[in-house]
Amino acid sequence: MKLIRLFAMALLVGVAVETKAQFGPQQDPDSKYATELIKAGTAAPDFKMLKPDGKKFQFAKWAKGKTVVLDFWASWCPDCRKDAPEVVRMYNAYKQHGIEFLGVSMDTDVEAWKKAIEKYRIAYPQVSELKKFKETDISKAYGVNWIPSMVVIGPDGQVKLSTVLTYKVDKYLKELTTGAYAPGAKGEKVSIDGDHGKLAAIIQKPELKAGEKCPMVVFCHGFGGTKDGPLFELICDTLQAHGIASVRFDFNGHGESEGEFRDMTVPNEIEDAKKVVEYVRDLRYVSDLAIVGHSQGGVVAAMTAGELGTDAFRAVALMAPAAVLRDDAIRGSTFGKQYDPLDPPEFVQLWGPQQLGGNYIRTAFSLPIYETAAKYQGSALIIHGNADRVVPYTYGERFHQIWPKSEFVLQEYFDHGFSQNIYRSTDIVAQYLIGQLK
């Protein structure tokens, strides 16, 4: 036993260094690849080029009074081909708002250019100088040293955004066309009996006729989080607009719910989730159910689905599910705070007044996360960012592996909270749920 304890403590030292590093700053690719790209506030240079059919095109005349996205790309560019479906999706999403896209190709081979346009079903206009990338006038005028690059130009002819990252353009256009997220009082506040006292919850539902029913989605927040904030509210708003109700609640010891944070464990959060499911299942207007969870809430959602069985939910959606919590407990390190995993203290001091109870560590140490979740075999979505330094995306991939009917979406450059473009992440989850429940 003494040797085992010495080994565990040695492991803690190594993990402490690793944990500190993973919470360090992440380099934005723009800081490397967009340093010379034309800056916001600059007047967009005019240019003349040729369309694929050989006809002449003048930018200033065509773009006058419009919001335009310039997409610098080439058929021979691997990163451009990878981004092409997302750029096409954005064009289809924002053209209804009057946003124009213009593809500026660095191709020299007209036929290869045309084939790529057809392959990716690019419907927006395309132009090119038909010169080598570094020899083009447009690359010099706009400071394009890397493709793909994108530049957003406003109706006033001024550059609004320049980047090599599609998600930045998507976020800008989303806020431009539909407005930025703003918290507000929405839904009906209810109190639900939980495992450690009353749970504060909010139900949002569509307008229903007498006797009409609708699906309901249960939302489970992460470790130290609450029911409020854009991650869940944006999804709930979209669901409500599509005739789907939702309930989001604070787990015991969190937010407005009763209980002490230090008494919180994953098993008693699963009991909380079950009690919320039982509560909404008894509402007369509720038909089918789905469950969503972020981070630790993703583990709770997955295990709740496994314990209640496949028939309990029409769909499950996990957002950066934190199955790493068991490995963290085994290593003796939670959020960078070290402890002896074989002899946990009464509590571990986290940030501010928050204390992690020793029972949390003891239960997490042997928590059968994937074994329990595997009992659910219905439809599922797992979404994760490959830049998540809190929970590596491989933990999300494993849920995909144990659920044959699941879909896995890996978002490049996205962190644990999907902060790079929360609108895109929440749209993916909302559209999945709408597709499964309506």
Would you kindly provide a written description of the structure presented here, covering whatever features stand out?
This protein has an eight-stranded mixed sheet with strand order 8-9-11-10-12-13-18-19, sandwiched between helices. Strands 5-4-3-6-7 form a five-stranded mixed sheet, covered by helices on one side. The chain has 15 helices and 19 strands. The protein has 438 residues and is an alpha/beta fold.
Summary?
With 438 residues, the protein is α/β, with parallel strands linked by helices. It has helices spanning 2-22, 30-33, 59-63, 78-94, 110-119, 137-142, 166-178, 230-241, 266-281, 296-308, 324-331, 358-365, 369-373, 394-402, 422-437, and strands spanning 48-50, 56-58, 67-73, 99-105, 126-128, 149-153, 159-163, 188-194, 197-204, 214-220, 245-249, 286-294, 315-319, 333-334, 337-338, 347-349, 355-357, 380-385, 406-411.
Shape: elongated
Alpha-carbon distance between the two ends: 56 Å
**Strand residue percentage:** 15-25%
Our count of helices gives: 15
How do the strands and helices of this protein lay out in sequence?
Blueprint: H1 2-22, H2 30-33, E1 48-50, E2 56-58, H3 59-63, E3 67-73, H4 78-94, E4 99-105, H5 110-119, E5 126-128, H6 137-142, E6 149-153, E7 159-163, H7 166-178, E8 188-194, E9 197-204, E10 214-220, H8 230-241, E11 245-249, H9 266-281, E12 286-294, H10 296-308, E13 315-319, H11 324-331, E14 333-334, E15 337-338, E16 347-349, E17 355-357, H12 358-365, H13 369-373, E18 380-385, H14 394-402, E19 406-411, H15 422-437
